[in-house]
Amino acid sequence: MKKIVFLLTVFLSISNLNAQTGTEDIVKDWERAKAYTKEYLDAMPESGYSFKPTKEMRSFSGQVLHLSDAIYGFLGAATDEKPPVGFGDLEKSADENKASVTAKVMAAYDFAINTIKKYPNSKLGEQIKLFGTFDLSRAQVLNKCFEHQTHHRAQTTVFLRLVGATPPAEKLF
Predict the structure, then answer these.
(1) Would you give per-residue pLDDT tens digits along the chain (173 residues)?
(2) Facing residues of 135 across strands?
(3) How far apart are CA 59 and CA 100, in angstroms?
(4) Which residues lie below 8 Å from residue 93, measured CB to CB, with a gap of 6+?
(5) Residue 53 — φ and ψ, nearest 5°?
(6) Phi, psi of 152 (to 5 degrees)
């Protein structure tokens, strides 16, 4: 009986290790997300960067700068790496220049990718209090950040359609 329990414990431990996502896999997803977001930025004509579907909504530029601000905020919290810009500063800039906004958004993705690349897998399970409110592991914070950027990028599909531009094809892999 002890052998069975031991073998079951070893099997479950190995299965659990294989199921965990390390920083290499996380980086691959972020690199794909960066490329996909760049396709969205490229698809929007310069004139569309100031487009707002309704007066209550962010502009296209506001959406992607908000997405970038959040990348800095979440990644800084998850890894204790100090972001190069203050939280919310990109969106507050009200920048609507296509080249400038694209550079700012790509810089946020580069910050995420480079920060995650050098982050030790062994620390991903550590618990932190995100934004002083949410008890999450560092890996969960990275996942929440990825979810957030996906959410806001997806919203820009509608912006592209409304200005007559074609959104990029889905990029799951």
Answers:
(1) 555 444 444 443 443 443 456 888 999 999 999 999 999 999 999 999 999 999 999 999 999 999 999 999 999 999 999 999 998 999 999 999 999 999 999 999 999 999 999 999 899 999 999 888 899 999 999 999 999 999 999 999 999 999 999 999 887 77
(2) 129
(3) 15
(4) 65
(5) -60, -35
(6) -75, -35
44 burial via Cβ count (<10 Å: 0-12, 13-18, 19+): buried
DSSP code at position 84: S
User: What's 130's DSSP letter?
Assistant: E
- Is the C-alpha dihedral spanning 152, 154, 156, 162 positive or negative? negative
* Tokens 């950040």 belong to residue: 145
- Taking the C-alpha atoms of residue 20 and residue 136, their distance in angstroms, rounded to an integer, is 16
pTM over 0.90, yes/no: no
Name the phi and psi angles at 123, rounded to 5: -95, -5
First-to-last alpha carbon distance for the chain, in angstroms, is: 44
